[in-house]
Design goal:
This protein is α+β, with helices and mostly antiparallel strands. The chain is 44% helix and 24% strand. A 5-stranded mixed β-sheet has the order 10-12-13-15-14. It has a 4-stranded antiparallel β-sheet with strand order 1-4-3-2, sandwiched between helices. Strands 5-8-7-6 form a 4-stranded antiparallel β-sheet. It starts with 5 loop residues before the first helix and ends with a strand. The protein binds adenosine-5'-triphosphate and magnesium ion.
Amino acid sequence: MNVMGQAERFAASLTEEGRYRLLIEAITDYAIYMLDPAGIVTSWNPGAQRLKGYEESEILGEHFSRFHTEEDRRAGLPERSLRTAARDGTFESEGWRLRKDGSRFWAHVIIDPIKSPAGDLVGFAKVTRDLTERKQAEALLRQSESQFRLLVESVTDQAIYLLDPGGQVDSWNPGAERITGYRPEEVVGRHFSLFHTPEDRDRGEPARTLETAIREGRFETEAWRVRKGGERFWAHVSIDPIRNEDGAIVGFAKVTHDLTEATGTRVALDRARDAIFQAQKMEAIGQLTGGVAHDFNNILTAVLGGLEIVMRRLPENPNITPLLQGAIQAAQRGVSLTQRMMAFGRRQELRPETVALQALLRAIMDIIIQTLGPRITLDTDFPEAPLTAHVDVDQLELAVINLLMNARDSMPSGGSVRISLSARAVDSDEMAGFRLGRYVCLSVADTGEGMDEATFARAMEPFFSTRGVGKGTGLGLSMVHGFAEQSGGKLLLNSRKGEGTTAEIWLPVEA
Ligand SMILES: Nc1ncnc2c1ncn2[C@@H]1O[C@H](COP(=O)(O)OP(=O)(O)OP(=O)(O)O)[C@@H](O)[C@H]1O
Ligand SMILES: [Mg+2]
C-alpha cells in the first residue's frame, strides 16, 4: 500500500526525497506515476488509484498500455508517446483512457522522460488529469451552440445577426438576407450603418445606437432602414451587447423585424377578407330579402286592391268602415315595408331621370324640416352650379328621409344636421367597390350619439336595429344602401361613438 503510517511520514519528511514523496502522495486530483524505459509502471499515487481504479499492488509491474483504448493500442499510441517524450523532452495529449472497470474517461496526459545525471533514460514521469467533466461540458456547449445556430438559421422572418464590438457584421441568417436583400458574402465584415438611411448616418445614429446598447444594456427602436436596392422599410430593431465573463464587450446581437411587411400585408389581407365576407353576406341577405319581399308585395297589393274595392262599393257603415280603414292602413304599411326590403334587395323598379339635386332637396325642404322636428337645427351646404345625377327621384327622397330619421333618432335632446352636396371623382381603384367616374355626393351629418364598432359593422344589415322592439324595423339604412347600389352608387357611413354620424349617398353623374 502506498498510504504511509504516522511514523513513516515523519521519517520521510526529514529528507528532501521524502518530502517529494509526501507531496505526490497528497495529490488526489492527478494521477502521478512512473514508468520504466519500457513502459512498465514502477510507482503509483493515490490520485492514480482514484482516477484509474487500480490498487498500487495490482498495477506495479504492469505495462501502461492497459490504460489505452483498444484502438489506440492497435495504432501503437503507447509506444509512440514514449518515443516522442524521449526524443522531444515531453509528450502531451488529450484522449480517451480506460479505468480498471473498463469505463472511459477523457484524459489530459503529460509524459516527461527521466534521465540519469549521465544522460541515460531511466524512465518516465507521467501525469494524468481527468477532464471528462470539462469534455462533457464542452460537448454540451457545442451541442447547444449548434442547436442555437440551427435555430437562428431557420428563422426567416427576422434578421438575426452578430456585430463585432466595432459594429462590423459577424454573422448573417436567412431572415437577414430575406429582409435586407444582402447575401452573407456581400455583408459580413461591413459596418452595420449600411442599413441606416443617409440622414441617420449623417446624424451619427449607428454609433449612438451601440453606445446606448452598452450604456443601458439594450437598444430598441422603430425606424426606417434601407434594403440593398435602396428601398426603405419600417423596422423594429433591438440590439443587445454581448459580454465575456470579465464583462468586456465582445460584440452585439441584433434582431430586426420588418414591420412594413407585417403590418402592410397582414392588415391589407384582413381588410380584403372582411370586405369580401361583408359583401357576400349583404348579397345573400339581399337575395333572400328581395325574393320574399317581392312575393309579399304582390300578395299585399292584391289584398289592398281588394280592400279598396270593397271600401268603395260598400255603403258607409259605422260598424264596418273603421275596420276596413284599419285593414287598408295596415296593408299599406306592409307594402311600404316590403318596398324597403325590395330596395335593399335591389329589386325596385327604378325610373331614373337626370335631376339637379339642389332643386330636388329644396322641393322637399318642408318635409325635411318636419322630419327633424323643432329641436334640431338644419343647415345646408349646396354649391351654386347645379349638380345633376341620374336617379329615381321618389326613391332618393325616401332615402334622404330615412337618413334624416336616423339622425333625428340619434339626437333625442336636440342637435344639428348638415345636408351638403358636392361633386366627386373616382379616378383610381383606391375606393373599394367604386366604378371609375364622376359622382355627386349627398351627405347627411349629425351631431348625435354616433355608433360603437359593433353597431357600425351591422348598421346596413336588414332588420338590424338598436331602437328597441317595435320601434325600428332596421330597414332604413338597408333601403338606402340597396337603392344607392342599384343606382350605380354607394352608401358610405362614417361614425364613432359620441362623435356623430355622417352618411353619404354617392350617385353617378352619368347613367
Ligand atoms: N345617424 C345615426 N346615428 C346613430 N346611429 C345610427 C344612425 N343611423 C343608423 N344608426 C344605427 O343603425 C341602426 C340601423 O339603422 P336603420 O335605419 O337601418 O334602422 P332603424 O333606424 O333602427 O330602424 P328603421 O329605420 O327601420 O326605423 C340603428 O338602429 C342605429 O343603431
Ligand atoms: Mg332608420
